[in-house]
Write a structure and sequence with these properties.
Number of helices: 6
Strand order of the largest sheet: 1-2-3
Radius of gyration: 20 Å
Structural class: mainly alpha
Order of helices and strands: HHHEEHHEH
Distance between the termini: 20 Å
Largest sheet: 3 strands, antiparallel
Helix content: 55-70%
Shape: elongated
Oligomer: single chain
Number of strands: 3
Length: 130
């Protein structure tokens, strides 16, 4: 099914795209092979997000990560059982394979595995994925 939160994120992206200032090129300089209004220019405009929009997207992602992690947090101490990480990641709308999940967990675990993951490490790794 369609996740309502995902639709909100999609709506936000479409809003940011519509509101984004158009990227201005340098006078007299054209991209090699790019015609005025050609496909390269259109693609550049479609995927340009001003830095303030990227910052907002990152803040929203961090908030979602915190909320998901807090649901499984152990004793409100900033750690979570390693066995819950797959559930948390899937609750964020991601669907990693078991091999991908094992790889993610290997990155998150400390040098000496304790069976718990710290939020800081979780955020660092999962934020790079979302």
């Amino acid at each position: 099914g369609i996740n309502a939160e995902y639709m909100g994120t999609l709506s936000e992206c479409l809003f940011f795209f519509a509101m984004a200032p158009k990227k201005k090129g340098k006078k007299g300089k054209k991209k090699a092979g790019a015609a005025e209004g050609g496909p390269d220019e259109l693609i550049d405009e479609m995927f340009y997000f001003p830095p303030e929009h990227e910052r907002l997207r990152r803040e929203i992602a961090i908030k979602r990560l915190r909320e998901a992690f807090k649901l499984f947090e152990r004793d409100n101490n900033g750690t979570c059982d390693v066995r819950e990480i797959g559930t948390i990641i899937r609750s964020l709308g991601l669907n990693p394979t078991e091999a991908q999940l094992r790889s993610i967990l290997e990155e998150m675990e400390e040098d000496e595995p304790t069976g718990f993951i710290k939020y800081e490490k979780f955020e660092e790794i999962v934020l790079a994925i979302v």
